[in-house]
Design goal:
2 copies of one chain form a homodimer. Chain A is mainly alpha-helical. Chain A has 10 helices and no strands. The first copy, chain A, has helices at 3-16, 22-28, 33-39, 43-67, 72-86, 88-97, 110-121, 125-130, 140-160, 165-179. In chain A, helix 1 crosses helix 4 (43-67) and helix 4 packs across helix 6 (88-97). Chains A and B meet through helix 9 and helix 10 of A and helix 9 and helix 10 of B. The first copy, chain A, binds a DNA duplex (30 and 30 nucleotides) through residues 1-2, 21-23, 31-35, 37-38, 41-43.
Chain lengths: 183, 183
Amino acid sequence: MSKQKIIESAIFIFNADFSASLDKVATHASVSRRTLHRHFKDRQDLLDACIFEMMKTWQAAMLVAFKNSTDPIKQLEEMLYAGIDCGVKYAFLTKLQNRAEELSALPTGDSEAYTKARDRWFSFIPDLGAKKIINNNLSIAWIRILFTHMIMAAVDALQSGDVAPNTIKENAWYSFRRSIGMD
Amino acid sequence: MSKQKIIESAIFIFNADFSASLDKVATHASVSRRTLHRHFKDRQDLLDACIFEMMKTWQAAMLVAFKNSTDPIKQLEEMLYAGIDCGVKYAFLTKLQNRAEELSALPTGDSEAYTKARDRWFSFIPDLGAKKIINNNLSIAWIRILFTHMIMAAVDALQSGDVAPNTIKENAWYSFRRSIGMD
DNA sequence: CAAAAATGTCACTATATTGAGACATTTGTT
DNA sequence: AACAAATGTCTCAATATAGTGACATTTTTG
């Protein structure tokens, strides 16, 4: 089935260029534009599928990250790795958060459930600050933005080909944990 | 003159959405689309003007950054601030680096001069690594990507309104210098 | 192999975007 | 006020993109 391939291509293309033509998406998926339209009614339909796919991927990754440990620091590390594994999906999803006005209503509840979950993942950040494990002069908003950009940096590094793939996660975690004041 | 205003708007709009219509640019600049076309022959012409504007701004900022000190660490800090001051211009410029294939040839020499200058700014990074001032396990490519994303994070923070503006540069420099292994 | 499902190709219409001409209106300068 | 420059409005034509129908071809499945 090419439906999944089209979604993946759309995520990749739209992440780089939100108003790119559907032709570009179809070409990237090695599929005719007509086939794309057989699976997706219109651009919005495809975009909704992308959003659903991205949320699904991200939530699944987060679940794994939290199962792996009960230590908040280890959990934070696993969250970062999960984001990097999600790759462009994570980047695109966070971008869309900031352009909600351009998007039609998502399937009811999905979006709320996502942001609710997302907020919960970050709820222990203040605790780490209170315990002086991380620098508590940094605001939660700044740390969240840092987290997002560290993942994007890792994705960039991977795509650029200039950084050895097997060192990227290690580098990202080192740089992130130090950027928020850890040892 | 509205020419400059159009360029600024184009940089802002195209940075967020590379394939946005010229109508959006004109609207953002509070100008009719007809006026936009009086100043710029076509989309590519406008984009070239954006690139020229961005390179000019960035180079000027870099020059100031380097004049302020001879201490490489202080210079690095000033470079970061310069990037943040350039804001979206810096972000958009670095994005375009990775899509050179989509761009027509720039005015001869300008692009080379820019990248040459850009590489020189980073030439002292290996020295800092050799002197163990920064973590020399990190590759230059990774550090460069980190630098870029730290600026983008600062821009995001400013635009989000969730981080106090007067703490952003401070936060960015703290997080960046630690992310590359400084104290 | 044969039927069914998926995809490709071609044709077509509709809408959006782009670029430019003609002329009116506003703005700034002397 | 008078003039020039800049900009806006309306119009039009060319191109690009979007979406659909009909039918051929390929792929999958039993």
